[in-house]
Design a protein that fits this description.
- The chain has about 290 residues and is an alpha/beta fold.
- The chain folds into three domains: about 5-85, Arc Repressor Mutant, subunit A, CATH 1.10.10.10; about 90-160 and about 265-290, Periplasmic binding protein-like II (D-Maltodextrin-Binding Protein, domain 2, 3-Layer(aba) Sandwich); about 160-260, 3-Layer(aba) Sandwich (D-Maltodextrin-Binding Protein, domain 2).
- The protein is built from twelve helices and eleven strands.
- The strands form three sheets. Strands 3, 4, 5, 6, 9, 10 and 11 form a seven-stranded mixed beta sheet that branches. A two-stranded antiparallel ribbon has the order 1-2. A two-stranded parallel ribbon has the order 7-8.
- The longest helix is centred in the first third of the chain and has 27 residues, at about 60-85.
- It is elongated and about 70 Å long.
- Belongs to the LysR transcriptional regulatory family.
- InterPro entries: HTH-type_LysR_regulators, LysR_HTH_N, LysR_subst-bd, WH-like_DNA-bd_sf, WH_DNA-bd_sf.
């Protein structure tokens, strides 16, 4: 079993195709097929079910896949660290950010970081908490913003900001003049929610479970402008970070009777190598909101 075989195996498993894997790897398709046949012969196991148009893992292949992922990631980390020891002056930061924060909190942070480190490139991916966590664990991202409550033991994390989730209603809504909103009142209304997988939705699902109710979700969308428009027109209410509505005069934001606070973290793989570029980004982010 060698590195090339594992790399080919991983790409076939990821893409479900020998042909597409060969295209991604920039090698001839027969070379990929030969490498996998040799790997299967060496292991005395069949790793793939070969169908007419799709390739799927056998049970044995599924057991090998996480080992291959860890080995490939370890080699990538080693290559990166060795490059930096040679005095690498440029680098890339691949960071995942939830949409709500990507639209309102991070734009000035990202621009200021680029101003301080003009030789570093930034690749920003927007997604839900679960998607970003999976991409981080698989090595597709170097860093990701995750709510402290949802950080798994496989990740290292540092808190950089505390934000309050607020109930958001239209100016003429019956809640608009109240000082705060109870969970029972909130869940009595038709709600406009992010889709499952986003921290916004995970928080609401958890609150509903604690209150013993089923949320009445009338709209599901990850588009913030649409959420705000639906609320303004009186077709539902929602809960958003205060930063999202603080400059919108047509919306009223109110605290829950028992305030809901979120500790926002920058996270990375606990066992992974954090490059100098990524360490610079983490340090810069923590500088913006010192404890």
């Amino acid at each position: 079993m060698d590195f090339k075989q594992l790399r080919y195996f991983h790409e076939i498993a990821r893409l479900g195709s020998f042909t597409r894997a060969a295209e991604t790897l920039y090698v001839a398709q027969p070379a990929v097929s030969v490498a996998i046949r040799k790997l299967e012969a060496e292991l005395e196991l069949t790793l793939f079910h070969r169908h007419d148009r799709k390739v799927t893992l056998t049970d044995e292949g599924a057991r090998l896949l996480p080992h291959a992922q860890r080995i490939l990631q370890a080699v990538s980390d080693a290559q990166l660290e060795m490059q930096e020891l040679k005095g690498l002056t440029q680098g890339k930061v691949r960071v995942g950010i939830p949409g709500m924060l990507g639209s309102y909190y991070f734009p000035p942070i990202l621009m200021a970081f680029r101003h301080r480190h003009p030789n570093l490139s930034l690749q920003v991916v927007e997604g839900g908490t679960w998607q970003l966590q999976q991409m981080l664990e698989s090595g597709e991202l170097d860093l990701a913003v995750i709510v402290r409550d949802f950080v798994p033991p496989e990740l290292e994390a540092r808190t950089f900001q505390r934000e309050e989730m607020r109930v958001v209603v239209a100016q003429d809504h019956r809640f608009a003049q109240q000082a705060c909103i109870s969970l029972s009142d909130f869940f009595s209304e038709e709600l406009v929610m992010f889709r499952p997988g986003y921290f916004h939705r995970k928080i609401i699902d958890r609150l509903a479970e604690e209150a013993g109710v089923t949320p009445n979700i009338g709209f599901e969308t990850n588009l913030l402008p649409l959420i705000k428009s639906i609320i303004k027109q009186g077709f539902g209410i929602s809960t958003l970070l205060s930063m999202v509505v603080k400059e919108d005069a047509d919306l009223i934001d109110l605290p829950f009777a028992q305030p809901v606070w979120l500790d926002l973290c920058i996270a990375w793989r606990r066992e992974g190598y954090l490059s100098r570029a990524n360490r610079a980004f983490v340090d810069f982010l923590l500088e913006q909101n010192p404890a």
